[in-house]
Amino acid sequence: MTRILVVEDEEHLSTIVRFNLEEDGYEVITVGDGPSALRVMEEQGDAVDLIILDLMLPGMSGYSVCENLRAAGKTTPILVLSARTLTEDRTRAFDSGADQYMMKPFDLDEFLSRVKSLLARYNPRTESAGTAQGKASRFEFADAQVDFKTYEVEVGGEPVRMTSLEIKLLQYFVENEGRVIPRSELLENVWNMPGNINTRAPDQFIRRLRKTFEPNPAKPRHFITVRDAGYRFLAAGLDA
User: Fold this and answer.
1) Which is more confidently placed, 91 or 43?
2) Could you tell me the pTM of the whole model?
3) Own/partner pairs for 222-229, CB < 8 Å, 24+ apart?
4) 3-126: which CATH number, 3.40.630.30, 3.40.50.2300, 2.30.40.10, 3.40.50.300?
5) Where are the domains positioned within the chain?
6) Is residue 121 scored above 50 in pLDDT?
7) Architecture of the domain delimited by 138-233
8) What single string gives the DSSP state of each residue in 206-219?
9) Does the CA dihedral 83-163-120-49 come out positive or negative?
10) Among the listed residues 188, 9, 155, 161, the one whose alpha carbon sits nearest the alpha carbon of residue 76
11) What average pLDDT is seen over the chain?
């Protein structure tokens, strides 16, 4: 059964979220603070398929929870559910490692849809047969091999752990290879955010891709910045 960790200190909201997730057939664990969330992930992280995370928590902020999990190599998708509405809050959440961001109060149907979408992207056990239709399943470039269904990534023969959002960004580049992609398009289609929002999220994540895949991240050959236009992915490399 798909297992979801809900990290929320407002008991009434935690109860509502848990009830509706369980009604949809998910197994739910609830905790009310950041340190407890980290303990759950340390003890049974491999069995947790999704984290729903508030930002304003006692003991440790949701940002710190994200940062600690990503620093520990945890790639479990994280859906932030927060009352914070400022653009900089969303940006900081994404920079900390969150995959999606929803503001409170939220529409229940949209929330459940996002949960299902994140689980399908991250966990092949929950993916329907038609989800990947028309999209690249496996891809190789330079010394990297990527399986977009299983999230298995190897670079130089060594396994690499990537978050679901990093995988989604990489897949979008692969599906649009050679084309200059504006930052606004990445925000709309990868982050599900309005394209006019001022955020450094794409830049931060592209730096992560360069660090993972480029022989020399300071002189990228595959993930190219096109000044005043956007980004371009070249599988063969800039000098090939």
Assistant:
1) 43
2) 0.66
3) 222/141, 222/142, 223/173, 226/180, 229/180, 229/182
4) 3.40.50.2300
5) 3-126, 138-233
6) yes
7) Orthogonal Bundle (1.10)
8) HHHHHHHH-SSTTS
9) negative
10) 161
11) 86
